[in-house]
Amino acid sequence: MSGKQTSDWDGYWKESQRPLVSLVFILPMLTIYEVGILMGHTQHRNGADAILRNWLNFAGFGQYFLLPLITCGILLSWHHMAREKWKLTWSVFYGMFLESLVFGFSLLMAGQLVMRVFTNGIVLALSLHNQFGKFISYLGAGIYEELLFRLMLIPIVLGLLALAGVKQERWRMSVAVVLTSIVFSLAHYKFDFTLLNIHIANSVGDSFDWPSFVFRFLAGVFFAILFLKRGFGITCGTHALFDVCTLFLERK
Q1: How many domains does the chain have?
Q2: How confident is the model at residue 125 (pLDDT cuts 50, 70, 90)?
């Protein structure tokens, strides 16, 4: 590989991870999702979105567009605190989309393999009838699930582990990836229990089963590593495109 090609790749690798670039990359998905929900094109508000809005409502902030504004604010603040340049290289977005598409399709194929190990499997087939609402919902899931479980939860777990005296960064990263992936997987299921006199319930989601839990855990690990290595934007794009690709899946 020539020196120029190496330099171009290094430039793309760093540019695609910048918070401002991530924000611009996810902004079309975020806009389609929020406007689609507002206009009633879908009732499929994803779980992470609902959790975050419930937290805001509990704190007394129920304004509809506050959550997407906070999402944008987090990325802009991160960009400012990292002292990154306020300049965009527009060609990088083509690479980010292609990278997200490759990662998303690879995860879809891995999911096929995992499900076939446990069950008779899911097979690829066209199943697009009345799926526009789900398409909009999946765009939101790609953003808000990554916001909650990766951008917010991973730094919190890393901070708590550091306070607990875990000095080796490799161990902190490994534990954070595993713990957040378990929480990510469990958040997709209905549950109702009491822990230490605290009632914890989730009425939205699937009934628990091990095959889907294992795959969602592995997907959480994949997204966490992708977030740490490739940044927020590509992780959101990969998650959203993976979810959109599942519109072509139906059980046989």
Answers
A1: 1
A2: very low
